[in-house]
Automatic annotation (TrEMBL):
One of its GO terms (cellular component) is nucleolus. Pfam families: Methyltransf_15. InterPro entries: RNA_cap_Gua-N2-MeTrfase, SAM-dependent_MTases_sf. It catalyses: a 5'-end (N(7)-methyl 5'-triphosphoguanosine)-ribonucleoside in snoRNA + S-adenosyl-L-methionine = a 5'-end (N(2),N(7)-dimethyl 5'-triphosphoguanosine)-ribonucleoside in snoRNA + S-adenosyl-L-homocysteine + H(+); a 5'-end (N(2),N(7)-dimethyl 5'-triphosphoguanosine)-ribonucleoside in snRNA + S-adenosyl-L-methionine = a 5'-end (N(2),N(2),N(7)-trimethyl 5'-triphosphoguanosine)-ribonucleoside in snRNA + S-adenosyl-L-homocysteine + H(+); a 5'-end (N(2),N(7)-dimethyl 5'-triphosphoguanosine)-ribonucleoside in snoRNA + S-adenosyl-L-methionine = a 5'-end (N(2),N(2),N(7)-trimethyl 5'-triphosphoguanosine)-ribonucleoside in snoRNA + S-adenosyl-L-homocysteine + H(+); a 5'-end (N(7)-methyl 5'-triphosphoguanosine)-ribonucleoside in snRNA + S-adenosyl-L-methionine = a 5'-end (N(2),N(7)-dimethyl 5'-triphosphoguanosine)-ribonucleoside in snRNA + S-adenosyl-L-homocysteine + H(+). PANTHER family: S-ADENOSYLMETHIONINE-DEPENDENT METHYLTRANSFERASE RELATED, TRIMETHYLGUANOSINE SYNTHASE. Belongs to the methyltransferase superfamily. Trimethylguanosine synthase family. This is Trimethylguanosine synthase. GO terms for molecular function: RNA cap trimethylguanosine synthase activity. It comes from Torulaspora delbrueckii (Yeast). Residues 269-301 are annotated as: Disordered. GO terms for biological process: meiotic cell cycle; nucleologenesis; regulation of telomere maintenance via telomerase; tRNA processing. Residues 279-291 have a biased composition (Basic and acidic residues).
Amino acid sequence: MAKRPFEKSHFLHIDRHKYKKEYRRLKKLFRDDAYIVKPNQALQEKQLYKYWKNRKNLFSKIDGAPIYMTNELWYSVTPEVIAKFLAKFIRACLPDATRVMDVFCGGGGNTIQFAKLFPRVYGVDASLEHLYCTYRNAKSYDVSDRIWLKYATWQQIVEKGRFARLGIDCVFGSPPWGGPQYLRSKEYDLETNLIPMGITEMLKSFLKISPNVVLFLPRNSNLSQLSRATRSVLGPSGQCRVIYVKDNGFLKGILCMWGAALISPVEEQCAPNEDEDKQPENLHDKQESPDRIAVNYDLDG
């Protein structure tokens, strides 16, 4: 009997009648070995070449194990060193956590690192091709048995409320920023440019799943909007911890956190104690406003 190309149980509800077409499409992706990266063959698209050139920053195993990427994933996957740092940070803050959700999981950069530290990780994405890539990449990192993937838009997930009953310990999201052109603006508007909804509604929807929320947002995000969203959803005493993440001296983005265990400013008690994954640029939190705690990290890749 031929070996099954994938465990369909790890694609939640994909064999239901309503997903009949999607299931057929998924099986074809596996049969065709679609989107496999040829590490020694440069991408033809000129606008993607700089991402291909730094491919080992996205997946360190890319030269020795099969990695799968759509064109969009080249500029949207979280660099591995950042994904690794974040997973360890959340593990340190929530030592008893067992279930983590990765919304907009894309190619699985964060999902994989979560699965190395947590026994059960849920990935959600509105692209079947991205879920396929996540599963394939997780296979290459030997963690596919710890992830369960759901094909749906985030709005559909929130409306049905199914995941709210699973006891998710932390929800992470790196929502689409609108492509590389997000840097054309001096300040990124978190209410109008963030996809698929503004920061206020996104925070509100994430908190329906778990009291612990982390978002990876553009480095030029409007922090005043972040403060207003925090107050709007959590009240005047609500707090958000902001971590500025640098890699090799370059600011890559900001990690925004909500939840008592994540925002605690007590001398970096949540920070992972691995020198190879971070070098603190500033060891002390800075209280910039009543609802925003900021700290800088420099990652040593």
